[in-house]
Amino acid sequence: xxxxxxxxxxxxxxxxxxxxxxxxxxxxxxxxxxxxxxxxxxxxxxxxxxxxxxxxxxxxxxxxxxxxxxxxxxxxxxxxxxxxxxxxxxxxxxxxxxxxxxxxxxxxxxxxxxxxxxxxxxxxxxxxxxxxxxxxxxxxxxxxxxxxxxxxxxxxxxxxxxxxxxxxxxxxxxxxxxxxxxxxxxxxxxxxxxxxxxxxxxxxxxxxxxxxxxxxxxxxxxxxxxxxxxxxxxxxxxxxxxxxxxxxxxxxxxxxxxxxxxxxx
Length: 265
Prior knowledge:
The chain has 13 helices and 8 strands. It has 265 residues and is an alpha/beta fold. It folds into 2 domains: 3-146 and 199-263, 3-Layer(aba) Sandwich (Rossmann fold); 153-198, no CATH class. Helix 2 packs across helix 3 (48-54) and helix 8 packs antiparallel against helix 9. The longest helix has 23 residues, at 8-30.
Protein backbone atom coordinates (compact mmCIF):
# COMPACT_ATOMS: atom_id res chain seq x y z
CA UNK A 1 0.00 0.00 0.00
CA UNK A 2 1.29 3.45 -0.91
CA UNK A 3 1.78 6.01 1.88
CA UNK A 4 -0.99 8.28 0.62
CA UNK A 5 -3.58 5.58 1.36
CA UNK A 6 -2.85 5.66 5.09
CA UNK A 7 -1.50 9.21 5.57
CA UNK A 8 -4.60 11.40 5.70
CA UNK A 9 -2.59 14.64 5.55
CA UNK A 10 -0.98 13.58 2.29
CA UNK A 11 -4.27 12.28 0.89
CA UNK A 12 -6.07 15.51 1.77
CA UNK A 13 -3.45 17.61 -0.02
CA UNK A 14 -3.51 15.37 -3.10
CA UNK A 15 -7.28 15.76 -3.35
CA UNK A 16 -7.02 19.51 -2.79
CA UNK A 17 -4.40 20.03 -5.51
CA UNK A 18 -6.27 17.83 -8.00
CA UNK A 19 -9.46 19.79 -7.39
CA UNK A 20 -7.76 23.16 -7.65
CA UNK A 21 -5.61 22.45 -10.69
CA UNK A 22 -7.80 20.07 -12.70
CA UNK A 23 -11.40 19.64 -11.57
CA UNK A 24 -12.31 23.31 -11.17
CA UNK A 25 -10.61 24.35 -14.45
CA UNK A 26 -12.39 21.49 -16.27
CA UNK A 27 -15.76 22.66 -14.97
CA UNK A 28 -15.10 26.34 -15.62
CA UNK A 29 -14.25 25.73 -19.26
CA UNK A 30 -17.91 24.86 -19.70
CA UNK A 31 -19.76 26.61 -16.88
CA UNK A 32 -18.16 29.38 -14.77
CA UNK A 33 -18.51 28.78 -11.03
CA UNK A 34 -20.35 31.74 -9.57
CA UNK A 35 -19.81 33.19 -6.10
CA UNK A 36 -23.38 32.41 -5.06
CA UNK A 37 -23.11 28.74 -6.09
CA UNK A 38 -23.83 26.02 -3.56
CA UNK A 39 -21.61 22.97 -4.03
CA UNK A 40 -22.16 19.44 -2.72
CA UNK A 41 -19.64 16.61 -2.71
CA UNK A 42 -20.99 13.12 -2.12
CA UNK A 43 -18.40 10.81 -0.59
CA UNK A 44 -16.28 13.78 0.40
CA UNK A 45 -13.92 11.82 2.69
CA UNK A 46 -11.64 14.43 4.35
CA UNK A 47 -12.94 17.15 1.98
CA UNK A 48 -9.71 17.95 0.16
CA UNK A 49 -11.72 18.47 -3.04
CA UNK A 50 -14.07 20.93 -1.35
CA UNK A 51 -11.17 22.89 0.14
CA UNK A 52 -10.44 24.21 -3.37
CA UNK A 53 -14.01 25.54 -3.55
CA UNK A 54 -13.96 27.16 -0.13
CA UNK A 55 -10.74 28.91 -1.18
CA UNK A 56 -12.96 30.64 -3.75
CA UNK A 57 -15.47 31.49 -1.00
CA UNK A 58 -17.99 29.08 -2.52
CA UNK A 59 -20.45 27.72 0.03
CA UNK A 60 -19.91 23.97 0.19
CA UNK A 61 -21.43 20.87 1.76
CA UNK A 62 -19.99 17.39 2.18
CA UNK A 63 -21.89 14.15 2.69
CA UNK A 64 -19.81 11.20 3.86
CA UNK A 65 -20.87 7.80 5.23
CA UNK A 66 -17.89 7.46 7.57
CA UNK A 67 -18.24 9.50 10.79
CA UNK A 68 -14.48 9.25 11.33
CA UNK A 69 -13.72 10.84 7.97
CA UNK A 70 -16.36 13.49 8.57
CA UNK A 71 -14.67 14.36 11.86
CA UNK A 72 -11.33 14.64 10.10
CA UNK A 73 -12.86 16.87 7.42
CA UNK A 74 -14.22 19.13 10.14
CA UNK A 75 -10.74 19.36 11.66
CA UNK A 76 -8.99 20.04 8.35
CA UNK A 77 -11.47 22.78 7.45
CA UNK A 78 -12.16 24.09 10.94
CA UNK A 79 -11.71 27.72 9.90
CA UNK A 80 -14.09 27.30 6.99
CA UNK A 81 -16.63 25.55 9.22
CA UNK A 82 -16.46 28.39 11.74
CA UNK A 83 -16.88 30.94 8.93
CA UNK A 84 -19.99 29.14 7.69
CA UNK A 85 -18.38 28.31 4.35
CA UNK A 86 -18.77 24.55 4.70
CA UNK A 87 -20.85 21.97 6.55
CA UNK A 88 -20.73 18.19 6.77
CA UNK A 89 -23.25 15.43 7.23
CA UNK A 90 -22.45 11.79 7.99
CA UNK A 91 -25.39 10.00 6.44
CA UNK A 92 -26.49 7.80 3.55
CA UNK A 93 -27.70 10.01 0.70
CA UNK A 94 -30.93 8.01 0.53
CA UNK A 95 -31.67 8.79 4.17
CA UNK A 96 -31.06 12.52 3.92
CA UNK A 97 -34.08 14.78 4.28
CA UNK A 98 -32.83 17.53 1.99
CA UNK A 99 -35.15 20.21 3.34
CA UNK A 100 -34.57 19.48 7.03
CA UNK A 101 -30.99 18.16 7.02
CA UNK A 102 -29.57 20.68 4.54
CA UNK A 103 -32.17 23.36 3.80
CA UNK A 104 -31.44 23.92 0.13
CA UNK A 105 -30.49 22.26 -3.15
CA UNK A 106 -27.25 22.60 -5.10
CA UNK A 107 -25.92 24.22 -8.26
CA UNK A 108 -23.05 21.75 -8.53
CA UNK A 109 -22.63 18.20 -7.26
CA UNK A 110 -19.30 16.36 -7.29
CA UNK A 111 -18.67 12.63 -7.19
CA UNK A 112 -14.94 12.01 -7.46
CA UNK A 113 -13.83 8.37 -7.35
CA UNK A 114 -17.15 7.40 -5.80
CA UNK A 115 -19.51 6.04 -8.47
CA UNK A 116 -17.28 2.98 -9.03
CA UNK A 117 -17.75 1.97 -5.37
CA UNK A 118 -21.56 2.00 -5.40
CA UNK A 119 -23.61 -1.14 -6.06
CA UNK A 120 -26.78 0.33 -7.54
CA UNK A 121 -25.37 3.11 -9.70
CA UNK A 122 -28.62 3.67 -11.54
CA UNK A 123 -30.39 4.33 -8.25
CA UNK A 124 -27.72 6.86 -7.29
CA UNK A 125 -28.14 8.79 -10.54
CA UNK A 126 -31.87 8.87 -9.91
CA UNK A 127 -31.41 10.14 -6.35
CA UNK A 128 -28.91 12.85 -7.32
CA UNK A 129 -31.57 14.76 -9.21
CA UNK A 130 -33.34 15.39 -5.89
CA UNK A 131 -30.33 17.42 -4.72
CA UNK A 132 -30.05 19.56 -7.87
CA UNK A 133 -31.31 23.06 -8.51
CA UNK A 134 -33.24 23.26 -11.84
CA UNK A 135 -30.09 24.31 -13.73
CA UNK A 136 -27.72 22.29 -11.55
CA UNK A 137 -24.91 20.16 -12.92
CA UNK A 138 -22.89 17.16 -11.79
CA UNK A 139 -19.18 16.41 -12.14
CA UNK A 140 -18.02 12.78 -12.10
CA UNK A 141 -14.50 11.39 -12.07
CA UNK A 142 -13.84 7.65 -12.03
CA UNK A 143 -11.39 5.02 -13.28
CA UNK A 144 -12.93 2.78 -15.96
CA UNK A 145 -13.11 -0.73 -14.54
CA UNK A 146 -10.98 -2.43 -17.19
CA UNK A 147 -8.07 -0.02 -16.92
CA UNK A 148 -4.75 -1.52 -15.69
CA UNK A 149 -5.42 -0.77 -12.02
CA UNK A 150 -9.20 -0.48 -12.08
CA UNK A 151 -9.45 -3.04 -9.28
CA UNK A 152 -7.65 -0.64 -6.91
CA UNK A 153 -5.01 -3.32 -6.44
CA UNK A 154 -2.64 -0.57 -5.32
CA UNK A 155 -4.18 -1.06 -1.85
CA UNK A 156 -2.81 -4.60 -1.72
CA UNK A 157 -0.19 -5.35 0.93
CA UNK A 158 1.71 -7.56 -1.51
CA UNK A 159 4.42 -5.61 -3.34
CA UNK A 160 3.83 -7.87 -6.34
CA UNK A 161 0.06 -7.51 -6.55
CA UNK A 162 0.01 -3.76 -6.00
CA UNK A 163 2.02 -3.33 -9.22
CA UNK A 164 0.32 -6.07 -11.23
CA UNK A 165 -1.97 -4.62 -13.94
CA UNK A 166 -5.21 -6.16 -15.17
CA UNK A 167 -5.28 -9.20 -12.86
CA UNK A 168 -8.50 -7.84 -11.31
CA UNK A 169 -10.22 -8.84 -14.57
CA UNK A 170 -9.81 -12.54 -13.80
CA UNK A 171 -12.92 -14.51 -12.76
CA UNK A 172 -13.89 -13.77 -9.16
CA UNK A 173 -12.90 -17.16 -7.74
CA UNK A 174 -9.48 -17.02 -9.41
CA UNK A 175 -9.00 -13.41 -8.36
CA UNK A 176 -9.88 -14.14 -4.72
CA UNK A 177 -7.59 -17.17 -4.71
CA UNK A 178 -4.64 -15.12 -5.95
CA UNK A 179 -5.25 -12.50 -3.28
CA UNK A 180 -5.30 -15.22 -0.63
CA UNK A 181 -2.18 -16.96 -1.96
CA UNK A 182 -0.24 -13.69 -1.80
CA UNK A 183 -1.21 -13.18 1.82
CA UNK A 184 -3.85 -10.47 1.67
CA UNK A 185 -5.91 -10.17 4.84
CA UNK A 186 -9.53 -11.37 4.67
CA UNK A 187 -10.82 -7.82 5.21
CA UNK A 188 -8.74 -6.53 2.31
CA UNK A 189 -9.83 -9.42 0.10
CA UNK A 190 -13.48 -8.60 0.79
CA UNK A 191 -12.88 -4.92 0.02
CA UNK A 192 -11.18 -5.78 -3.27
CA UNK A 193 -13.93 -8.24 -4.20
CA UNK A 194 -16.53 -5.55 -3.58
CA UNK A 195 -14.66 -3.15 -5.86
CA UNK A 196 -14.69 -5.86 -8.52
CA UNK A 197 -18.46 -6.13 -8.12
CA UNK A 198 -19.10 -2.39 -8.41
CA UNK A 199 -16.52 -1.34 -11.02
CA UNK A 200 -18.07 0.58 -13.90
CA UNK A 201 -17.15 0.90 -17.57
CA UNK A 202 -17.49 4.00 -19.73
CA UNK A 203 -20.25 2.33 -21.74
CA UNK A 204 -22.25 1.33 -18.69
CA UNK A 205 -21.89 4.80 -17.16
CA UNK A 206 -23.10 6.53 -20.32
CA UNK A 207 -25.97 4.05 -20.64
CA UNK A 208 -27.14 4.86 -17.10
CA UNK A 209 -26.86 8.59 -17.78
CA UNK A 210 -29.12 8.20 -20.80
CA UNK A 211 -31.63 6.03 -18.94
CA UNK A 212 -31.83 8.57 -16.11
CA UNK A 213 -32.27 11.52 -18.50
CA UNK A 214 -28.87 13.17 -18.09
CA UNK A 215 -27.10 14.99 -20.90
CA UNK A 216 -23.32 14.93 -21.21
CA UNK A 217 -22.06 18.50 -21.46
CA UNK A 218 -18.37 17.63 -21.52
CA UNK A 219 -16.13 14.63 -21.01
CA UNK A 220 -12.43 13.88 -21.05
CA UNK A 221 -10.67 10.54 -20.93
CA UNK A 222 -7.09 10.41 -19.68
CA UNK A 223 -4.27 8.09 -20.60
CA UNK A 224 -2.54 9.32 -17.45
CA UNK A 225 -4.87 10.33 -14.62
CA UNK A 226 -4.29 13.95 -13.44
CA UNK A 227 -4.05 12.77 -9.83
CA UNK A 228 -0.98 10.69 -10.76
CA UNK A 229 0.97 13.96 -10.84
CA UNK A 230 0.73 14.10 -7.06
CA UNK A 231 0.73 10.39 -6.37
CA UNK A 232 3.54 9.26 -8.66
CA UNK A 233 5.09 12.37 -10.22
CA UNK A 234 3.61 11.64 -13.66
CA UNK A 235 2.30 14.37 -15.93
CA UNK A 236 -1.34 14.02 -16.96
CA UNK A 237 -1.95 12.94 -20.55
CA UNK A 238 -5.28 13.18 -22.36
CA UNK A 239 -6.42 10.05 -24.15
CA UNK A 240 -5.94 10.12 -27.92
CA UNK A 241 -9.18 11.31 -29.48
CA UNK A 242 -9.48 8.34 -31.85
CA UNK A 243 -9.04 5.84 -29.01
CA UNK A 244 -11.56 7.72 -26.86
CA UNK A 245 -14.15 6.98 -29.57
CA UNK A 246 -13.57 3.22 -29.64
CA UNK A 247 -16.00 1.42 -27.29
CA UNK A 248 -14.57 -1.26 -24.99
CA UNK A 249 -10.94 -0.64 -25.99
CA UNK A 250 -10.91 2.82 -24.41
CA UNK A 251 -11.67 1.28 -21.01
CA UNK A 252 -8.47 -0.77 -21.04
CA UNK A 253 -6.17 2.17 -21.80
CA UNK A 254 -7.83 5.11 -20.02
CA UNK A 255 -6.92 5.52 -16.35
CA UNK A 256 -9.54 8.18 -15.61
CA UNK A 257 -12.73 9.67 -17.00
CA UNK A 258 -14.08 13.16 -16.28
CA UNK A 259 -17.76 13.87 -17.03
CA UNK A 260 -19.84 17.02 -16.62
CA UNK A 261 -23.58 16.40 -16.96
CA UNK A 262 -26.97 17.99 -16.43
CA UNK A 263 -30.48 16.66 -16.00
CA UNK A 264 -33.01 17.14 -18.78
CA UNK A 265 -36.76 16.65 -18.87
